[in-house]
Amino acid sequence: HYDPVDHFAEAFAYHGVLALRDVGTEGEWMQTQRDRAQAGQIVSPRIFYSAGMLAEEHGSDGMNERATDPQNPGSIGSEVRSLAATGADVVKVRLRNSPFDARVSEATHALGVPLTSHYVFSSTVARGLEGKEHMELYYRDWTAIYRDDLLSTLRAGHVCVTATLLLYPVFRLRGGSTLFPLDTTLFSDPAHSVLYAPAAFDFARRAMREPISPRGIQYWDERFRRDLENVRRLNEAAVRVVTGTDSPPPWEEFGVHLEMELFVKAGLSPIAAIRAATLDAARCLGVEHELGSVEGGKLADLVVVDGDPATRIQDARRIAWIVLGGHLLTRQQILDSLRAAAMKAR
Question: pLDDT tier at 204 (50, 70, 90 boundaries)?
Answer without folding.
Answer: confident
